[in-house]
Amino acid sequence: MKLTPISRISISDAIVEQIETLIAQGELKEGQKLPSERELAEEFSVGRASVREALKVLESLGLVKRTSQGTFVENSSPSLVAQPFARRLLLRRHTVHELIEARRTIEEDLAQLAAQRADEQDICNLEEAVHAMDEDSGQKWVEAEVYFHSTLAEAAHNRILSDVFEIVRNLMLSLADGDFEGPGKRELSKQEHLALIEAIKERDPEAARRLMAKHLDLAEGIWVDALQEK
Ligand SMILES: [Zn+2]
């Protein structure tokens, strides 16, 4: 007989579960506006902090979008990130160290595969993603940074790995909360991305892997510093 351990579920996790179910059942449709935080707190008989926490998780799962006009259902079609496996991953409390460890495991392989498989279009996309890192591109550092890595994940041509990277990407965006700029590291990070593109163009998988490992050392420093300041 195989029994599964029972984990205690928090209030915000229970809210995520309910809203996710409503979306999955089609009761909440794409583009539909959710009740306000205050109304949701009343309906669920919970505090607003729990509602806010739950909305943050739903947003990082790609299921809702929070705007100044309110919270809207973003994606009502089931995707990998909405699956129970991904949700369990996300609902645990993550540390930045766990995130970087996961990135090393996944992205060093992605870089190596990209150097073996990237086509002309992938290389164009990567170069475009680097330009989004220019100060005047209007992109926030964290968005531009994460965009480059998603593009690289696509260039590895393994849809399972790029889906796994999507979970990592959502965690990065939810941890950063979209508002940190990686002070002073923007240019350095960009240079390292350019070096990665060179290794991919030269079809040098070992160099690509090594450069990604080095780049993630830099990333770890930036994320730890930025999140400690918060
Ligand atoms: Zn990067």
Biggest pleated-sheet summary? 2 strands, antiparallel
Q: Name the hetero compounds present.
A: zinc ion
- Number of individual domains: 2
Intertermini distance: 46 Å
Secondary-structure-derived class: mainly alpha
Instruction: Kindly state the number of beta strands.
Output: 2
The CATH superfamily name of the largest domain is GntR ligand-binding domain-like
SS field, number of helical segments: 10
The helix content is 55-70%
In CATH, the topology of the largest domain is named: Four Helix Bundle (Hemerythrin (Met), subunit A)
* Radius of gyration over C-alpha positions, nearest whole angstrom: 19 Å
Low-pLDDT sequence parts: none
Strand order of the largest sheet: 1-2
The CATH class of the largest domain, by name, is Mainly Alpha
Mean pLDDT metric: 83
What does this structure look like?
The protein has a two-stranded antiparallel sheet with strand order 1-2. The longest helix is centred in the C-terminal third of the chain and has 25 residues, at 205-229. It is mainly alpha-helical. It has two domains: 11-78, Orthogonal Bundle (Arc Repressor Mutant, subunit A); 94-229, GntR ligand-binding domain-like (Four Helix Bundle (Hemerythrin (Met), subunit A), Up-down Bundle), CATH 1.20.120. It has helices at residues 11-24, 37-44, 48-60, 84-91, 96-117, 120-131, 141-155, 159-176, 186-201, 205-229; strands spanning 64-67, 70-73. 32% of the residues are buried. Helix 2 (37-44) crosses helix 3 and helix 6 runs antiparallel to helix 7. The chain contains ten helices and two strands, in the order H-H-H-E-E-H-H-H-H-H-H-H. It is elongated, with a radius of gyration of 19 Å. It binds zinc ion (ZN). Zinc ion binds next to helix 7, helix 9 and helix 10.
